[in-house]
Amino acid sequence: MSAIPLHPLTPNSNLARLPRRTGGVQSFPNAEPAWIRWSLIAVSLAFLASFLFVPLTAVFWEAFRKGAAVYWASFQDPDARSAIRLTLLTAMIAVPLNLVFGVAAAWAIAKFDFPGKSVLITLIDLPFAVSPVVSGLIYVLLFGAQGWWGPWLAAHNIRIIFATPGIVLATIFVTFPFVARELIPLMQSQGTEEEQAAIVLGANGWQTFFRVTLPNIRWGLLYGVILCNARAMGEFGAVSVVSGHVRGLTNTMPLHIEILYNEYQFAAAFAVASLLAMLALITLAAKTAVTWKSRGPLEDHANHNSTGDAHEH
Q1: Residue 90 to residues 71, 175, 211, 303: CA-CA distances in angstroms?
Q2: Looking at residue 5, what is its pLDDT?
Q3: Measuring CA to CA, which residue among 133, 92, 80 is closest to residue 257?
């Protein structure tokens, strides 16, 4: 059998027109007309202006419309200060607990195989599928006066519903997927080779975690914590069900804003809302900084791989 001659590629051949790899990334020709690109950009900017920038500007405009004196006076109200303290306290309790749970769950799911692994993943996603109001109602059915454990709690003078513990529990429930969901795909992509190498070299479990696993996931962990904190401070539905709206005791900032607005205290309502918006903007800035910072190691890793591929060829 005679060998089939191999012809060199010509500029008109199909293979010659395949996209070439540039720096480890395939480049494709941009065939869209310029007017399509600019139209999409204009539509996106119009949408952001209508549904994000204008409402956010309106919040700060209404907050300062009657002057800075009225604005600062809104925070002298004891109920407003109590709502701010309770919001910060709830976030300070819920976020660290979710951090511990998220790291433990992500480590177990990404590094080990065990019976019920898929069930655990489904349970982690449960708060995304359940309405926050329903999750708050679950705690009322469990710990309320007519709930399963309500009579026992009342007999021992323990208050969960319409008190701070119920608010913390409801906040933990709606926020616990954020850290785990950020870490699970990251830890799965990293594999277990470095941990196994550390164990072979004599490291124990805690040394492996703090010296190998934690440095590799630090940016993803911080990203998840930022998202968890933002949701904890802004949660309304679940907290509204379990709080009882007791002024000065169980009202968080979102609940306090609702009460002020319903009582036609618009200046005070928008003042507290502006504080919550500023906390959200700070969270967004921190999230953007973490995203930008985390790209550095990833880009260095990609450039290293592409350089290695070039040397191999």
Answers
A1: 25, 12, 31, 43
A2: 46
A3: 80
Q: pLDDT for 207-248, tens place per residue?
A: 888 888 888 998 889 989 999 999 999 999 999 999 988 888
Coil/strand/helix, residue 14: coil
Residues 249, 83: contact at Cβ < 8 Å? no
**In 3D, which of 237, 233, 129, 114 has the Cα closest to residue 181?**
129
Is residue 10's pLDDT more than 50?
Answer: no
What is the total residue count of the chain?
A: 313
- The angle subtended at Cα 199 by Cα 193 and Cα 202, nearest 5°, is 145
Taking the CA atoms of 186, 190, 195 and 198 in sequence, report the sign of the dihedral they define.
negative
Q: Are strands 21-22 and 25-26 parallel, antiparallel or unpaired?
A: antiparallel
Q: In Å, what is the CA distance from 59 to each residue of 62, 71, 141, 268?
A: 5, 12, 36, 11
Residue labelled with tokens 């999409």: 40
The pLDDT tens digits of the residues spanning 174-218 come to 998 999 999 999 999 988 888 889 888 888 888 888 888 888 998
Q: Which amino acid does the sequence have at 122?
A: T
For tokens 């998202």, name the residue.
Answer: 227
Section 283-287 average pLDDT: 82
3-state helix, strand, coil in the chain (%, to 5): 75, 0, 25
Distance between CA atoms of residues 144 and 170, nearest Å: 13
- What is the chain's mean pLDDT, rounded? 83
Q: What phi and psi values does residue 65 have, to the nearest 5 degrees? A: -65, -35
Which CB contacts under 8 angstroms, 24+ apart, belong to 39-44?
none
Alpha helices in 176-265, H assignment, sequence order: 177-190, 193-200, 205-208, 214-234, 237-243, 253-262
